[in-house]
């Protein structure tokens, strides 16, 4: 079996699985797999999901935090409402000034988890897309630094490339545990990689 064919079959598998199981995106399985491996979300956690449309991660996060937790999704695009009282969405740019205040205003308490699956519009110019993706990752990391109280976990998607190590180094200062990981549900050919940080350290 050729590699390309295997990949195509895997993508179709997750696409069909998401349809059948009622998830809004195949990306839902990436969060599920990373959570299974790294135990990122706990019951009752307040979670912020950056770049959340169409909402697959929101669905998975709500499953994990349960009825007493809270999930806030943010995207440039509008997100169709989810049928849960404790899932809220706002349309906003995560790189804009004032985003911390906007997020805090929409949360019941400070977050324990910050997720970011935000991706730039793909220009096709590799260097540009990589740099934009790292910028989005950096915005997610600085939101974690601003918004976490004395503990917190992050999961941040970035397109791999020369600036990735820099971002990793920055994050290493803030977390007890830091890892880069690619879940099985992510296409092998895709450059995406996920940065996982656990045990936030407040200086
Ligand atoms: C791969 S999708 C997210 C999929 C989502 N995790 C799911 O499971 O449905 C990436 C999203 O990032 C959003 N995005 C990109 N730049 C953004 C920004 N500056 N602020 C907010 N959202 C952004 C895009 O609009 C897009 O919807």
Automatic annotation (TrEMBL):
Active-site feature positions: 157 (proton acceptor)
Principal location: cytoplasm
Gene3D superfamilies xrefs: Vaccinia Virus protein VP39
Subcellular location: Cytoplasm
UniProt cross-references to PANTHER family, sorted A to Z: PRE-RRNA 2'-O-RIBOSE RNA METHYLTRANSFERASE FTSJ3, RIBOSOMAL RNA METHYLTRANSFERASE
Annotated family: Belongs to the class I-like SAM-binding methyltransferase superfamily. RNA methyltransferase RlmE family.
Protein name: Ribosomal RNA large subunit methyltransferase E
Keyword Methyltransferase among UniProt keywords: yes
Residue ranges occupied by any Ribosomal RNA methyltransferase FtsJ domain in the UniProt entry: 23-200
Cellular component annotations (GO), alphabetically ordered: cytoplasm
């Amino acid at each position: 079996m050729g590699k390309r064919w295997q990949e195509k079959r895997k993508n179709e598998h997750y696409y069909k699985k998401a349809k059948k199981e009622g998830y809004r995106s195949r990306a839902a399985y990436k969060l599920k797999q990373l959570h299974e491996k790294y135990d990122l979300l706990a019951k009752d956690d307040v979670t912020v999901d950056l770049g959340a449309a169409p909402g697959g991660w929101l669905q998975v996060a709500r499953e994990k935090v349960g009825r007493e937790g809270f999930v806030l999704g943010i995207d440039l695009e509008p997100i169709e409402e989810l049928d849960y009282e404790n899932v809220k969405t706002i349309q906003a740019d995560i790189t804009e000034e004032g985003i911390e205040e906007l997020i805090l205003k929409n949360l019941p308490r400070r977050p324990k988890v910050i997720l970011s699956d935000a991706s730039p519009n793909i220009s096709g110019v590799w260097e540009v897309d990589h740099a934009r993706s790292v910028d989005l990752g950096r915005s997610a990391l600085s939101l974690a630094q601003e918004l976490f109280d004395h503990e917190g976990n992050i999961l941040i998607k970035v397109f791999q490339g020369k600036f990735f190590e820099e971002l990793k180094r920055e994050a290493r200062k803030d977390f007890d545990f830091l890892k880069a990981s690619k879940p099985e549900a992510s296409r092998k050919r895709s450059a995406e990689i996920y940065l996982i940080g656990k045990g936030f350290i407040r200086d």
